[in-house]
Each structure stands twice: as structure tokens, then as C-alpha cells.
Specification:
Layout lengths: L2 H12 L3 H20 L4 E3 L3 E8 L2 E4 L6 E4 L2 E8 L1 H7 L1
Antiparallel strand pairs: 1-2, 2-5, 3-4
Helix pairs in contact: 1-2
Amino acid sequence: MNKADLAEKIADQTGLTKKTSREAVDAVISAITDSLSREEKVTLVGFGTFQVMERKARKGRNPQTRETINIPAKNVPKFRPGKGLREAVR
């Protein structure tokens, strides 16, 4: 399922137009992205939690030259599914 399919499914279930549901999906994604860029945790009860985690600096290897390189630390998004989602998938 992609974003357009999700918007269409929301339109079918809520009676909204496809355009309105597409805007709603975009607004939710934008709100989550904005919160994560400020390093805030986003919790959707029953679905899961989005948060920013720091990945530590480490050493890596260039596969072409076998040269050791330093990979800098960076922040990455992480998703932890909630209990309801985990049980629905099982």
C-alpha cells in the first residue's frame, strides 16, 4: 500500500473526498516529520511510537578499496510498534 492507496482507503471509510483525505494524510506525515525534526517523540496509542535515536560514530570499510573509514554519528528515526499493532500482525 502506498500513500495514494491509503488516502483512497480513508476516503472510502470516512466519506471524505479523495482530495481531502490525501491532504489529511499529507498533514499527518508532515506533523510527524516536524516533531521528529525537533527530536520530539510521537506516540499514537495502539499504533506505535516514532522517536529520534542517535547512531554512534563507528568505523567502516570501503568495499571497493578495503580502506577503513570513519562513519560519523547521526540521528535516525525509529519506530516501535504498539501492542495493538503487534497483535494485529500476528
